[in-house]
Model the fold of this input.
Amino acid sequence: QVQLVESGGGLVQPGGSLTLSCAASGSIFSIVALGWYRQGPGKQRELVARVTSGGSTEYADSVKGRFTISRDNAKNTVYLQMNSLKPEDTDVYYCNGYIYFSTSQWNEFWGQGTQVTVSS
Done:
């Protein structure tokens, strides 16, 4: 099976920075895309940023210019550098991956989530 393990969440003041990391492990044949979603109480889970195996990136409008997603293919790890954080960025952040676990079988996988709290 495939596991996604996140790290790097925590409490930060408005205007501060945090970096989230997510490492994929297990029976990985190839990774199509890795990304980050977030979800707050009573809200739908929303895409924050995604990066494909080819390096193409996609960002939510609310984080463009503040967040940067990057990927280390050798380590099967994706990072989310979050700058100029705002209180409205407070959410649980989930790592997401579209991963082939054989030559022809793929699935969507989720991490367990990491809390990001932006507050003074």
User: Anything to note?
Assistant: The first strand starts at residue 2 and ends at 7. The chain is about 0% helix and 60% strand. The CA atoms of residues 41 and 91 lie 8 Å apart. The mean pLDDT is 96.
